[in-house]
Structure formats: C-alpha cells, structure tokens
C-alpha cells in the first residue's frame, strides 16, 4: 500500500546518501512516475527531498535532516500509528504489519511510552457490528487487484434491485459514512463508477491485467449541493430517538415540547431516501409541516397497512 511505500522510501533516504528514481522503482516494483509522485507527497508532508540530475544524481533528504533523524514528532508518529492500526483492523496484510514495524523503529526508547499513550487515545474500529459477511474478503480481493492492476468481474445490484454482470478496472477503495465503496472504470458503461461494496456479489480477480488510465477521483463531498436541495421540515420526536436524529442534524435544531418530546427542524429532500429516514424512526416521529409531506407520509403508511390487511 502507498503508506507502506512512503515510510519505506523515507527510511531509505535517511540511510542512503542519494538514490535514483529508477533504483527506487525497481525496489518497490512500481514505475519511476509513481516514485516521483511519492517524492512530491513526502515533500508536501514537510520532509525536504531534493533531486539532482546527471551521473550520480538522484533523490536525497537535505543534510540538516540527515544529521538529526528525528524527522517525525511525537504527534506525527502517534497519528501514523493510530491510522495504520485502525486500517489493519479491517484490511489485513503483511504490508500493514511491516509498515507498523517500520514506523515503530523510528521511535526513540525515551519517547516510546508517551507515543504509545497518545496513539491509543483515539481508537477507530472500521469493522461492522454485524451485516454482510462478504465485506472483509471483498476488501482483500479489491486490495490485491489494486496492487496488481488486475481486472475485477462481479455482479452489481442497483438500488432498484436490478442485477447486472460487470467487469471493471479498480482504482480506489473508499470508506464513506461507515460504508465501503470502490471506484473503478466500468467496461460495460465505459465510464468511472463508484460501486457500493454491499451491493457487489460474486467478486473475482481476473487473470487479465490492465494499463492504468488517467484516474478521475469520485466526488464525495456533496455539502454544497445538499445545501441547495435540502429544505427544513418540522417533525415531533420522542426523546428515545434523539441519538438517531442527531445523525442527521445538530442539537441546535431541537426545541423541547413537554417532558417527553422535541420539535426538530429537520433537513429533508423529497425522495425515497429521506422518506425512509423518517419511517425508520417508527411511531416515535410525526411530521408536522409542511402539509404536503405530512399527507405523503400518511399515504405511504396507508399503502403499507394495506399489504398487511390482505
């Protein structure tokens, strides 16, 4: 994985006087272009790496950093350890174990206890309480396909229940709002698609490798779009569902209504997803305004009741 490679490159640069891009590319079995991108990332992280051209040229960390090898502060090492430990809970592999061992090798003995304490102050567990048993093995399959640039074949079920056979070039794993997705170039649609892992089935790595194309990152921040699309509706909720309603709006939008209930200004878009959110609160939630949404809720409840009456 990239974090493992970046840490390893930093360690090599600390130990060697100078090393060329091609030599690094051969060590990590990637292209020189990838190495140049990694060096840019290391520079942006605040570690000054300079390059020299010509015979004997290559990359090197500036001398003042070579003299004092305390490149990472206590906060830096704690953050790296916390991130790698959290990731290893969900995506297992020798590279993560190796990366953790390499990062720990940077820790001076006199700072080990302090860094371990700070690294354990935040614990991120990405594994689900329950649910789709395919998530863990599918993450491993996608991770392998990403590393080896191999095609993935699978079946995908859309939100309406329609299933199609697909083949795609994988480019990125995404964890968004507690759900795993993966971004790939779908050969059936001839375009990039963001696939939800829980809707993916029969996932298999193909023997055929692919040449990576210019990658287009998925759009994951819809804050501006939602601000335009959302309207505020007024709902009355029982105090027993406060924690769930707080997943969608801040407590500043709550007003007490007696001892047991609250009036909430709730962000809403008139579509299936948002109606289902309201229904998920069951009889602990009542839509008060606007009238047309209240009427639509009543119609949908009647249709559900009709199913059970028959």
From TrEMBL:
Residues 2-57 form the HTH deoR-type domain. GO terms for molecular function: DNA binding; DNA-binding transcription factor activity. This is Predicted DNA-binding transcriptional regulator YafY, contains an HTH and WYL domains. Gene3D superfamilies: Winged helix-like DNA-binding domain superfamily/Winged helix DNA-binding domain. InterPro entries: CBASS_pafABC_assoc_protein, DeoR_HTH, HTH_11, PafC-like, WCX_dom, WH-like_DNA-bd_sf, WH_DNA-bd_sf, WYL_dom. Keywords: DNA-binding, Transcription, Transcription regulation. Transmembrane segments: none annotated. It comes from the Bacteria. PANTHER family: PROTEIN PAFC, PTHR34580. The keyword Lipid metabolism does not apply. It comes from Desulforamulus aeronauticus DSM 10349. PROSITE patterns: HTH_DEOR_2, WYL. It holds the Pfam family HTH_11.
């Amino acid at each position: 994985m990239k974090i493992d490679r970046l840490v390893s490159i930093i360690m090599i640069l600390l130990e060697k006087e100078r090393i060329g891009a091609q030599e690094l590319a051969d060590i990590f079995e990637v292209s020189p272009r990838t190495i140049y991108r990694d060096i840019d990332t290391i520079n942006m992280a605040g570690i000054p790496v300079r390059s020299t051209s010509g015979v004997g040229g290559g990359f090197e960390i500036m001398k003042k950093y070579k003299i004092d090898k305390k490149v990472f502060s206590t906060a830096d090492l704690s953050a790296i350890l916390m991130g790698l430990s959290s990731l290893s809970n969900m995506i297992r592999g020798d590279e993560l174990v190796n990366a953790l061992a390499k990062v720990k090798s940077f820790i001076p003995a006199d700072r080990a206890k302090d860094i371990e304490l700070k690294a354990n102050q935040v614990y991120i567990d990405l594994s689900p309480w329950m649910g789709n048993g395919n998530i863990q093995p599918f993450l491993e399959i996608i991770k392998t396909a990403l590393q080896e640039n191999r095609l993935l074949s699978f079946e995908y079920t859309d939100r309406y229940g329609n299933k199609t056979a697909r083949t795609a070039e994988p480019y990125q794993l995404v964890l968004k709002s507690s759900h795993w997705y993966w971004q790939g170039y779908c050969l059936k649609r001839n375009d990039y698609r963001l696939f939800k892992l829980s809707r993916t089935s029969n996932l298999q790595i193909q023997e055929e490798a692919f040449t990576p194309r210019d990658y287009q990152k998925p759009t994951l921040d819809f804050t501006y779009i939602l601000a335009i699309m959302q309207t505020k509706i007024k709902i009355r909720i029982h105090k027993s569902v406060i924690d769930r309603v707080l997943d969608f709006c801040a407590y500043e939008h709550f007003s007490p209504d007696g001892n047991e209930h609250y009036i909430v200004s709730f962000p809403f878009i008139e579509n299936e997803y948002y109606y289902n959110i309201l229904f998920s609160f069951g009889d602990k939630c009542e839509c008060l305004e606007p009238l047309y949404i209240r009427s639509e809720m009543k119609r949908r409840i009647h249709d559900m009741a009709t199913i059970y009456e028959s």
